[in-house]
Amino acid sequence: MISLDKFAYISGLKNVNHMEKFVFSIGTMTVCLILNNVIDSLIILFLMSYITVAKGKVPFFTFVKFLSLPLSFLFIGVLTIAINVVGNSNDVLFSFRIFTIHLACTYESLSAAGVLFFKSIASVSCLYFLTLSTPVFEILAVLKKLKVPRLFLELMGLVYRLIFVLLDTANLIYISQSSRLGYSTLRIGYHSLGKLITSLFVSSYKRSLDMYTAMESRCYDGDINLLENNFTCSYKNIGAIICVELILIVIGSFEKIFGGIGL
Where are the domains of the chain? Predict the structure, then answer.
């Protein structure tokens, strides 16, 4: 198992009703996206981080490491919003030219980029809360109860399982090549990489067929049935979720009405 999956199985929140965690995570992320508000985004970011680290027992620096993974992609997207082509404007913070193109950063574009950045990172923290506290097959069980098409769920489950097969096979081949100095020089490294990709495709295809054969031998008929844990419904958690969402909505509405940070 990779780290995300491992933390989900040893999380301090693993015995909490998976439907409650799903509703809290997706509901909070939806509120964050709709309100489009920096203050709400910061509250959600700190709230989700606190619950994941303090209640879920995920090491703080490990969570920060996970949270920093999408920053490179987010930085590029935010940069393209903060700096764009402008005409004559008195609200320019700084500007420069590339050939005949006049690029500049204005207060409005910088504000929009900041809102997007915090909204995105807060949404990511919501998803990390769910993935670091809930095994993927419990998430699939929730989606099944929500009447998501069965074919879609089966594909998600199989693809999820085959990702581990692919990573495990690649890791074994890489270790074998490295122990034989397969990456000692750049030229040899490219040659070894080509062999790794070829071997990875053949080996992974064979292992996927073996897995499908094993499933058929256990009477697989196109429907993957898994045993689910019996979770009890916590009215305390439901009340807390409703209160959190209402507080976020009130804060977002207050900011919009009085011209605060946001839309």
Answer: 1-146+233-263, 149-230
Q: Strands, DSSP E only, in the chain?
A: 84-85, 92-98, 101-106
Instruction: Report the distance separating Cα 35 and Cα 159, nearest Å.
Output: 34
What the block records as the tokens of 26 is 């997706």
Q: DSSP secondary-structure letter at 261? A: S
Confidence of residue 258 (pLDDT cuts 50, 70, 90): low
Say which amino acid occupies 99: F
- The neighbouring-strand residues paired with 101 are 98
Give SS3 for 89: coil
Whether the predicted pLDDT of 179 surpasses 80: yes
Is the confidence at residue 227, as pLDDT, over 80?
A: no
Phi, psi for 140 (deg, rounded to 5): -65, -35
pLDDT given at position 171: 84
Query: What tens digit of pLDDT does each residue of 56-94 get?
Result: 888 898 888 888 888 878 888 888 887 776 666 566 766
**Residue 14 carries which DSSP code?**
T
A 10 A CB-CB count for 109 gives 19
In DSSP terms, 95 is beta-bridged to 104
Note whether 255 and 39 are within 8 A (CB): yes
